[in-house]
């Protein structure tokens, strides 16, 4: 049994070290013996367990981040400093710049995924503490919590907590789409500039103005020659799909300029070589 290093008495550290070595308990019921209602209840319990696990994961990530201060990080441009990639990691104040890479090794995932996880956990602590507590209690699933993070992560923490206080009581009853719209509406009501900053982060246009950019329409397709009824004594042949013209030995060619496309065989200006 290993002893956990950290605050607390010797007995507490020894107990924590023993618990760390134990396999995670998982209660599994014989599914074949459960009724339909019991299976549905078990699925709801699993969702609550996943929410609690996500909250615990965020707490562990933040604890690991607190153990990785940026005191010893080399200054930018000096030997040993990490080279900035074309898409930099979200910065965590006071945390080492090497922390996302270390977290990626611990989780056996990519650095970008680890960085996003750390930033989401940081947002729970600074912007959405009540959402984090609801996840820990199993009252709010992780998907809805991540939706609130997506909407409020770039706004002021005080404004984010105001939005959270108004939307959280009904968050579990709303669909994810309605929850996102509700949070955006409250954000726009409380802080329009924050909504513009969020849209700028996503590469869009501001929403506080009176006009919105219109979606550019596709150019109209060129018309196709409509079918015509040839004279009885005229022989016709097809050169292009949807376009018929008389042969060289038949009667006069038909001028379809008013409704003809540039590639039509009868368009004005085309030579016999192009027909």
Please provide a written account of the structure.
The chain is globular. By secondary structure, the protein is mostly helical. A two-stranded antiparallel sheet has the order 1-2. Strand 1 and strand 2 form a beta hairpin. The longest helix has 31 residues. It contains nine helices and two strands; from the N terminus they run αααααααααββ. About 9% of the residues have low confidence. Helix 2 crosses helix 5 and helix 8 crosses helix 9.
Provide keyphrases for this structure.
single chain, mainly alpha, 9 helices, 45% helix
User: In what order do the strands lie side by side in the largest sheet?
Assistant: 1-2
What class, by secondary structure content? mainly alpha
* Net shape: globular
Number of helices: 9
In short:
With 275 residues, the protein is mainly alpha-helical. It has helices at 10-21, 36-66, 99-107, 111-126, 129-136, 142-152, 157-167, 176-190, 192-201, and strands at 236-240, 243-246.
Q: What is the element layout, followed by pairings?
A:
Elements: H1 10-21, H2 36-66, H3 99-107, H4 111-126, H5 129-136, H6 142-152, H7 157-167, H8 176-190, H9 192-201, E1 236-240, E2 243-246
Antiparallel strand pairs: 1-2
